Structures are given as structure tokens and as C-alpha cells.
């Protein structure tokens, strides 16, 4: 399903994003995406989940904001929700309370004077929107295993470079 | 977010706008299954599985979708095979997830019960063989995609009116490649007890596709004899301790005999091996059992015993089983056994009680959307 539904070319993506640009510039969108991918990574680290689950969560996040702008749903809430769903799909579930507390801790860390404005039902509700938006296609393929299998043949710098590329997807 | 909600709400397709609910099929812990028909397009029959909203009465959700719904939807979305139930779409309506799937007129359990209670004669060899082959074919596809079904039993094997097998209920299924947690930690108990493989009964932490093959062996035997092969009594879980299924193990030993070290080299390494000492010694009587069913094919017996091999490492795999000589000898398996043999079974009964229930929910919808639901009420009543 990944191949059939979610692979967009650079031009298709640019076209969709241009519709979002009424509110944000191209640059800002890119920056926000990088910022939130990093935020998801940090939440993932706090939960001590594996890289692949974090990668899935980031993919969910990006899939959601293909057809929606950052004004539609607060990306902070969406980031937490993506993490929650990714853990479930990748068979390493965390209690929703746990996800919530780690996400709000993360939030306070980045902006100390504001409280994380969402509660547990918000995450659960947001999950249903995320699921719908992705049309319930949940399995994400990551090429980590391929890299591990190929790793013997690669030189160290090449391996490091490919690893970063995958992390970036 | 409010804006988004409104936008989303507008895009939503209501289940009842798109499909007409014909009747109620069954219910379980997960929710309810209905039979339905699309309002537009070709007149096909579909099954709609409606997951229960987590806690009824609560205004807001507290934990999102369940792990089993998540698995079933996630996996079914990717799987396309003629012997696996096809998921057509998923709709969010009324705060519940609705899975729209292929409809199958029968399931293997209902067919076997019909043979026992009404026809009082066994299923013909051609039918048994065709169903078995298709079942293995579906499971081979799952295994090739690194998925364990983990709950194969007659009730989960759907069969269409022409006799095409559709493996259903992937609520316990999961991908087994590189698990982040051991399979055991994820779900402590898997597979309905009568169909549970010996390595699971002996507490094995790691298991393989062989557990599904054991279940298939049990189902094959059940089709031959029209009663479960190992009908043990389940010991209920107490204080979250996983009990040893004494009765079930005993049933297996009675027919397959006490396993020897040669038959199952790693037997002694099983966590619950010490329980094995409490049983008396049995010898293998599967051959007599098989002869008593009235089936004569020696290859059939060979296949059955390879499926019921104690050692999970030696147990026949799905792809090997498909090439078994049993399927090469007459009568050869066919794709639509019921059609060819002109067999018809009574159709699935659709209960009306629950339909009324559906209707009462329906009236609620009518209040909200009078234009759409009005016509369907008349249809549901007839």
C-alpha cells in the first residue's frame, strides 16, 4: 500500500504544499516538518522505543500533513498521537497515559511557561482522525533490514551515510 | 482543531448511506457483524464488522483503537489473496470503526454441524480435500508474508456459497519477523485450546509458523470425523497465572502417544516439561483413529501425521503441504467444490432481534439525517 498510495513525486508534493502556502511560506513548512520530526524523535527516545517505531511515527505525521495544514490540528498533539499509534502498530504498545506524560514533559521542556494543553482523550480522539486521514493504511516499510543485511559489504562511512538517509525519510 | 473537525465531518461517508444493512450475523467481544449490500454499484454481499466503541456511555474515548483492531486492519489492508478475507474499506461512523469485508455464506463450523445434526453423513472426500487445500493455500500466503494467524479454528474459516475458502479473523495475527518483543510477551495465550500446538501447551516462549500447521492438522481431522480431534477441557486462568492445560495434553497423548526423545529432540527443553511426568504412557493410535473415520487414502493419513508431528521443526510447512501427494491423487481438489458437487447448505441465519436493535440505532440516525435514511428503513423491514 505504501507504494500505491503514499509515494508522491516532488512536483505533486510541491503542488499540494502550494495550496497550504496561503498561510505559511514554503520555507516555514519545511522548517516545521524538520522541527516536529525531531520532536517525535525526542519523544521516542524518552519512551526508549526503537528507531523503526520512531520512523513509522514520523511517516504518519508527514502523511497527515500532506492533505492538511498545520492549522488544522496542532502538530504537538499530532506528534504525540503518531507516536502512540506507531507503537501499537509495531507491536510495542505503550499505555496512553505514558505517551501523554512523556509528550507533555517534552512540551514543557521546549516551552517552559506553557502547560501541554491536551489531555488523554484528546490523543485518543486525534488518533481516530489520523487513522481516517491515512485511510487505515498502517503498515510502513522501512529499509533498515536491507541495510543491516548489506552492511557487511559497505565501508564504514558509506554505512553511516546510508543510515542517516534512512533516518531522514 | 474545531475547523478541522467540521471539515472532516463533512467528508465523512456514513455507513448506512453507502450500504444497506440486510441483517445481523453475530456478535463477540470485539463488536458486531452485519450483512450488507452496497446501495450503488454491483449487487454484491458484504460483511460489516462494527467494533464496539471502547466503553459505551462514555462521552470521550480514553484509549483509542484496540490492539486487535489495529492488527486486523493494519494487516488486512495489505493482504490480497483469494483464500483470505478481503477488506474493502474502513469507515469511521458513529464513533466506531466499521470494517467492510467480503461476505461468505458459510463457515466451516456451521457446515460441519450441518453434517452432524441434519445430514448425518460425513463430508465427501472431494469437499474435505478442496477445503483443506485452499485453507493451506491461504495460510501459505500468510506465512510467505511472515504473518502468523494464531487462531485457526473452524469458526474462523469462512466459505463462500460456491465453496471458496476465506481465512478470516486476523485479530490475533501478527508479523513475526524481528519482533521488538518476544511473541510470548505480547500475548501470553494464543490459539483456541483444542487447536493449540504441543509446544504452546508446554509453555514455549518462541514459536513459529508450525503452530498454525498443527491447527490445520486438527481441522483436517475434524472434517474427517466431524468432531474435534483433541477435545480437552480448558483450565481457566486464575490470578493471571497461566495454567497448564492438563486435559488438553492428555487428549493429545491418548491419540498420538507419549512423545519420545527421537520424535521431539527438544522436548526436555520445554519450560513445562516437568508436567509431562504425571501422564501415564500411551502409544500412538492415530492410524486406528484414521481407519475408524472410514477414510482410506494412505496419503491422507501421511499428511495428517506430518501436520500433527510433535516436533515443530519437523512439522510440515504450508508450502510443502500444498505439494503433498494427497492432493495429487484422485479426487483432486477443486476450486468450487460445492458448485461442482451441487451441494447446498442452509444459508446463514440472520437474527431479527439484533436487527431491531440496529433499527433503533437507525432511528437515531434518521433524526439527524432524515433525507438519507428514510428509504432504507423500509428496506430493512422487508
Automatic annotation (TrEMBL), chain B:
<dbReference type="GO" id="GO:0046872">
    <property type="term" value="F:metal ion binding"/>
</dbReference>
<dbReference type="InterPro" id="IPR011009">
    <property type="entry name" value="Kinase-like_dom_sf"/>
</dbReference>
<keyword id="KW-0539">Nucleus</keyword>
<dbReference type="GO" id="GO:0004693">
    <property type="term" value="F:cyclin-dependent protein serine/threonine kinase activity"/>
</dbReference>
<comment type="similarity">
    <text>Belongs to the protein kinase superfamily. CMGC Ser/Thr protein kinase family. CDC2/CDKX subfamily.</text>
</comment>
<dbReference type="GO" id="GO:0016592">
    <property type="term" value="C:mediator complex"/>
</dbReference>
<keyword id="KW-0678">Repressor</keyword>
<dbReference type="InterPro" id="IPR050108">
    <property type="entry name" value="CDK"/>
</dbReference>
<feature type="domain" description="Protein kinase">
    <location>
        <begin position="19"/>
        <end position="327"/>
    </location>
</feature>
<keyword id="KW-0547">Nucleotide-binding</keyword>
<protein>
    <recommendedName>
        <fullName>Cyclin-dependent kinase 8</fullName>
        <ecNumber>2.7.11.22</ecNumber>
        <ecNumber>2.7.11.23</ecNumber>
    </recommendedName>
</protein>
<keyword id="KW-0418">Kinase</keyword>
<dbReference type="Pfam" id="PF00069">
    <property type="entry name" value="Pkinase"/>
</dbReference>
<keyword id="KW-0479">Metal-binding</keyword>
<keyword id="KW-0723">Serine/threonine-protein kinase</keyword>
<dbReference type="GO" id="GO:0008353">
    <property type="term" value="F:RNA polymerase II CTD heptapeptide repeat kinase activity"/>
</dbReference>
<keyword id="KW-0067">ATP-binding</keyword>
<dbReference type="InterPro" id="IPR000719">
    <property type="entry name" value="Prot_kinase_dom"/>
</dbReference>
<dbReference type="GO" id="GO:0005524">
    <property type="term" value="F:ATP binding"/>
</dbReference>
<keyword id="KW-0808">Transferase</keyword>
